[in-house]
Amino acid sequence: MKLFHAGAEENQGLVLRDELGHVYGDGRWDSQVSSLESPTVLRSDGSCEDGASSTQSKITTCEAGWNITNAIQGIFVLGLPYALLQSGYMGLLLLVFAAVICSYTGKILVSCLYEEDESGRSVRVRDTYEDIANTCCRHICPFIGGKLVNAAQVVELVMTCILYLVISSNLMCHSLFFFSLTPATCSTITFLTLVPCMVIRDLRVVSHLSLFCSLAQFLITFIVIVYCLCQSPQWNWGLSAVAVDFDGFQVAVGVIIFSYTSQIYLPTLEESMMDRQDFCSMMDWTHALACILKTAFSVMAFLTWGEETKEVITDNLPTALRMVVNLCLLAKALLSYPLPFYAAAEILQTGVGKLESSAEWRTLLVRGSLLILTLIMALCVPRFSLLMGLTGSVTGAVMTLVLPALFHLQLKWTQLDISRKLLDLFILFLGCFCSISGVICSIKGIIKAFEKDR
N or C of the chain: less Cβ packing under 10 Å? Predict the structure, then answer.
């Protein structure tokens, strides 16, 4: 169980961030989990093996890029066309700008793992995001930085679970419309379907679902793009000049940033690469590819439906096609939920609650409480885009923009020239502004949605 607290939460992030279970390790992992007889590690094909053999495995640059691509091309991409509707032309610029900034912050975060030795060589002296935070906060309060990072991760994981529950309920309502189910009923049915997550104690149970989830995501995205291309003769390019509302724009900022978050597991991914010197170039081309695909997908969907674009773009599809696609998405969302739920529960048990694995009733209590919490939040905030924007503003901006820039300035201040210092300071203040304003605007939007529903 120490695996999830002592420095492998990023390893778990490779599995949970967006459904593809790719966890790799090397000899350094072996020292971290020496107290475990044979820790379970997921291989790239989704199968499992014991720690004795997996600790020597390394991944190629292409495999690392595949992990990054799956992390930033998940189910939440379906909310980007609606974000474009809220932000207009600025949304297009934001999609490109966010890709560039997130790629940069990922690279500077990994650079914080290294220090120069007496000969000027870069030596890896830290392993995780938590280690970096603890180093930066050691003079203020030892270990407080790592605890804050863990807390932020738990918040993001729980919010991800809530998002999966919200989108599952939404998809159920739109797919089974002939049953006249209310959103509350759909949420309850979804909740009952997910109750078995309470008894999952082995990552292998959920790892085999990961590959199918990722393939389903690409298939669904492909179907939406093909349908939009078929409707291209009816595209109205004038619709792209939508007036930008500040509150809607701030929510869109959170949505777009959340769709690019991958920093939390980059330290482990970089450590697992055969050629670590390729990490920076890998970050560049994966984010460039993601930017192109997201921009093309969002623009085509927006040009197809214009101001009628809905929060989840599949709701705009014709009835028959929408039912098929939504049922596939529903299965994908339900199969994806156990991954962040499992990781959040493990972190709470080991990092916060410090519960022993033998205390079965305590474990079930923590997991049951976590499951009920996600249901209550899903019922209270049933708006997918607002919740996604709030998540991106609360944890996405902090973990992706604020902390990497702050840690980089603190650890590398003497090595940075004035332009790099100014760039890091710009990202730091930009992340703080986006986080604070995004939270305020998302909460205002949630309040308005409640008032409208009443």
Answer: C
